[in-house]
Amino acid sequence: MTMPNRHYGELKDSYLFYNIAQKVNAYRAAHPDAQICRLGIGDVSLPLCGAVIRALHAAVDDQAKAETFHGYMPECGAPFFREAVQGHYARRGVKLEADEIFVSSGASDELGDILDLFSADNTALVIEPAYPAYVDANILAGHKVLHLPSGAENGFVPAPSMEHRADILYICSPNNPTGAVFSRDKLRAWVDFANKTGAVILFDAAYEAFIEEDGVPHSIFEIPGARGCAIEICSLSKTAGFTGTRCGYTVIPKELACGGMNLNAMWVRNRTTKTNGVSYILQRGAAAVFTEEGQRQIMENIRVYKKNAACLMETLDRLGIWYCGGKNAPYIWLRCPGGMGSWEFFDLLLEKAQIIGTPGAGFGSCGEGYFRFSTFGSPAETAEAARRLEKLLAKE
Ligand code: PLP
Fold first, then answer.
1. 332, 179 Cβ separation under 8 angstroms
2. Is the pLDDT score of 132 beyond 60?
């Protein structure tokens, strides 16, 4: 008899986005003319930049001619793509070999697939509040999951301790949902901890392009010792507007090993077994992100989101509401005013100001009492939301 993966039965239903959609649909049905401001979305609103679009068009034309046509691509990434990423790291002072960089269809795919490298008896540590996919992917892999709550007292950047000993450690910096970043010292503490305890860190760098503070690491490989204990998972989704286009990359150093097995070599074996790579057209478009023109253009888009963040942060400052994030990340994480619960605050914003945000409780139990605003909306919608927020909460 066929046996299913019984771990599917252990997944908790994710009510977060389902509940939000239900509440918003009910509100819309009752108020069809309401102008709703969406600060809940984790998707970008600006289109791909010109350099990427040109490279995509040129790659489509290549596929029309026998001389430039490409069939199957190398499973781990086209040399031109791997070298483009390698050059990007080198300009930041991180030396990687091109075959330590693996192309991917985005970070979500990788966060699930990468667990193929580890046996089912591993324990994963997830620092919460966290991107919900970490927990679910580990449950499906049969791993035990430990939750490490963080809070305002440690700036949502907890330090490791022997109580948090686990085999796979998740670090997301800049963090979704809190927007908090690991400083060099804080990250070094986790790298040292992983090396001391024989753990592997899965470092999610999906939002690194939003870091503006000098000295905050964009890559875990800026930290001495990280090559012996870390895998870095990157995405062009938020960096360059690839949420619907799909491309990312993963870095696995050649010396990274566990239980006597080399993880880079295992990942090559995994990719050559499980994928036929990412399309030529997409890799051409993605490689254009790392050109000088591409970098300039993606930073212009990121600046638009940062202006949205500034507008919301100024409003929260005037209202005297505690928050973190916004500076090095496209998310602002605020404490719900008046001690409200996060769903209570969600309802208040929707009913009284027609603003949608994301309740913190959806990112782990320590997120209760907090709320996430995304800065990926249009400037006009964000400014309108800020105006309504001020009007609502100033008179409360
Ligand atoms: N990691 C984090 C922390 C995210 O917030 C997201 C998307 O929101 C992802 C990974 C997934 O990104 P991708 O679009 O590359 O799958």
1. yes
2. yes
d(CA 366, CA 342): 11
Whole-angstrom CA distances from 169 to 98, 175, 196, 199, 267 are 25, 14, 13, 7, 18
For 307-338, write each residue's pLDDT tens digit: 999 999 999 999 999 999 999 999 999 999 99
CA distance 173 to 29: 39
Pocket of ligand 1 (CB under 6 A): 42, 106-108, 131, 172, 176, 204, 206, 235, 237, 243, 248
Burial 348-357, CB ≥16 within 10 A → b, else e: bbbeebbbbb
Does pTM top 0.90 for this prediction?
yes
From the CA of 311, how far away is ligand 1's center (Å)?
Answer: 24
Of 14, 41, 172, 176, the one to substitute when testing ligand 1's pocket (max ligand atoms within 8 A of C-beta) is 176
**What are the two backbone dihedrals, phi and then psi, of residue 23, each rounded to the nearest 5 degrees?**
-65, -40
User: Are 93 and 137 in contact, with CB atoms under 8 Å apart?
Assistant: no
The pLDDT > 70 percentage for the chain reads 99
Please give the Cα distance from 216 to 182 (Å, whole number): 7
Phi, psi of 92 (to 5 degrees): -100, 5
d(CA 243, CA 240): 9
Q: What is the rounded distance in angstroms from the CA atom of residue 110 to the CA atom of residue 250?
A: 8
pLDDT digits (tens, 9 = 90+) for 355-370: 999 999 999 999 999 9
Distances, alpha carbon 29 to alpha carbons 16, 24, 120, 126, 271, in Å: 20, 9, 46, 38, 46
Distance 233 CA to ligand 1 centre (A): 10
Residue 70 has pLDDT above 70, yes or no: yes
Query: How would residue 18 be classed by pLDDT, with cut points 50, 70 and 90?
Result: confident
Residue-wise pLDDT tens digits, 44-55: 999 999 999 999
Give SS3 for 10: helix
Q: Note the Cα 62 to chain centre separation in Å.
A: 32
Residue 305 has pLDDT above 70, yes or no: yes
